[in-house]
Amino acid sequence: DTHMGILKVENEKMDGLEVEKRDHARSVEGYAGRKGDWEKETMRASELVQMIKGDVANFWKEWNQRLKLLEQRRDKVDEDCLLAAASISYLGGMRPLARETCHKRWLLAMEDAGLWVTEGLTAVDFVCGYPALSTL
């Protein structure tokens, strides 16, 4: 009787192991079927990461270029203000040709004095706000 009980228990264990073996085989088959999909997804993810890295690098490059432009403008703001104030105060009532001539002479005089203004900036630009930063 005890031998029969032991045999029955061992058979039940074997049945359980058979079920586990089948489940494991199904899992392996399922994994093999999905492996190609996972590889594709991994490749796509890698490509996406590379694109993002490139975008971030470009962002910081553009950011630094814009900072340099702003720094250059900041360094010239006093001179730009001087030229704009002089243009508005003294040239407002003059004819366009006289204004342009005076403006050019003032620019030359400022350069001779070591005062550099933002290239191409007019009094109107200064009063209304600097032109937008060029797109990089």
Main traits of this protein?
136 residues, 83% helix
What does this structure look like?
By secondary structure, the chain is an all-alpha fold. The chain has one domain. The protein is 83% helix and 0% strand.
Calculate the terminal CA-CA distance, rounded to whole Å.
Answer: 91 Å
> Given the helix and strand composition, which structural class is it?
mainly alpha
Characterize the quaternary organization of these chains. single chain
DSSP strand count: 0
Portion in beta strands: under 5%
Secondary-structure element order, as H and E?
HHH
Question: Which helices and strands appear, and what pairs or packs with what?
Answer:
Elements: H1 2-91, H2 96-112, H3 123-128
Helix pairs in contact: 1-2
Summarize the structure.
This protein is mainly alpha-helical. It is 83% helix and 0% strand. The protein has one domain (2-128).
